[in-house]
Write a structure and sequence with these properties.
Blueprint (H helix, E strand, L loop, with lengths): L4 H20 L5 H20 L5 H8 L1 H16 L7 H9 L5 H9 L7 H28 L1
Helix pairs in contact: 1-2, 2-3, 2-7, 4-5, 4-7, 6-7
Length: about 140
């Protein structure tokens, strides 16, 4: 796995983006952010599909940071109540999906017109996973042709 340091660094870019945007209170239009990171995350899925390791291992490696962040999110927002929530851990789990919140909110609003932040973040996580998956599958199919 040490041969894939560059690829693993790609997995940290959504977290770094969220950290910078939330720390500096920088405003980037959510639609623009979503478009850029949607294309980027699709491309990252393609990169991991092309690694010279077993496809399942490659897919799991490509989703390690996502899975870790998703686990923190579930722990802090689904399992814990407000009193038991650790604000640092909860914040860290939100940074990772910052660029996908726009898509999460648009999908969620198709089903409900009352904003529930936890549900929107859950959909943002699922959207992020599906975009990576689509890129991974696309590159895998293209590779076989």
């Amino acid at each position: 796995m040490t041969h894939y340091k560059r690829e693993v660094v790609l997995l940290l870019i959504p977290f770094l983006y969220g950290l910078i945007v939330n720390s500096l209170m920088t405003f980037i239009h959510p639609l623009l952010s979503q478009l850029i990171f949607g294309v980027f995350w699709f491309w990252v899925g393609m990169i991991f599909a092309q690694l010279n390791i077993n496809k399942i291992k490659s897919f799991l490696l490509g989703n390690t940071v996502w899975a870790f962040s998703f686990g923190l999110f579930i722990w802090q927002f689904i399992i814990n109540d407000d009193a038991g929530r650790n604000l640092l851990i909860a914040g860290l789990s939100q940074h990772y999906i910052s660029s996908f919140i726009w898509l999460g909110s648009k999908v969620y609003m198709l089903f409900d017109n009352v904003i529930h932040g936890t549900n929107i973040m859950l959909i943002a996580y699922i959207s992020m996973f599906l975009i990576f998956f689509a890129g991974f599958v696309y590159a895998t199919i293209r590779e076989r042709l």
